[in-house]
Amino acid sequence: NTADTGVIVNGHDVTAYGLFVEHYQKYQTIWNGERGRTVFYQSELPYDPPSQRAWTSPSGAKGWASYKIADRVRTHEAWGLGVYSYFNQGVDIREARAIETPTAKGVVFHDMITVFLDGSGGIEKTINNAGTPVIGAYGTSMVVTYPES
After folding, report:
1. What's residue 61's pLDDT?
2. Measured between alpha carbons, how far is 103 from 56 in angstroms, rounded to an integer?
3. pTM
């Protein structure tokens, strides 16, 4: 897919059930609205970033988070999120974090996983700075609750 972003949610009080967003070139999903909820999210990152330099977000982080909650959002809850990597360019491409969210009392995530499917590179963190790397070999990283209670 050659588009930058798959889904942008600007409305408040939006609930998504079974949201699948895959292979966009930058953020897969950007959530700007308050009181959003997602129940099941699946996302594969783009297969073919040409280089790490070309696939770096404006913050300077490696890659673009799949599920991005805007910094100004104060309430959001999500359950069952999975983000998968398969970079087929043969170069070491990394995504710093699969899910990027502000730290706010009302922003809570449950049951997230990142998976390295094949190829090169991978995902360094599941959500913000939580989770273990899934890089260079098949593997998974699970985070049960974020932030941890």
Report:
1. 95
2. 22
3. 0.96
Please list the residues that pair with 16 across neighbouring strands.
38
Per-residue tokens: 125: 């963190």
Q: State the CB neighbour count (10 A cutoff) for residue 52.
A: 16
Q: What integer is the mean pLDDT of 23-51? A: 97
For residues 64 and 55, is the Cβ–Cβ distance under 8 A? yes
Q: How far apart are the first and last CA of the chain?
A: 38
- CA–CA separation, 82 vs 71, rounded Å? 21
Looking at residue 62, what DSSP letter applies? Answer: B
C-alpha separations of 112 from 59, 83, 135 in Å: 23, 8, 17
pLDDT surpasses 90 at 2: no
Structure tokens at 2: 């050659």
Query: Is 124 a residue of the active site?
Result: no
Rounded-to-integer distance, Cα 4 and Cα 69, Å: 16
* pLDDT tens digit sequence for 89-140: 889 999 999 999 999 999 999 999 999 999 999 999 999 999 999 998 878 9
Q: Which of 22, 34, 44, 77 is an active site residue?
A: 44
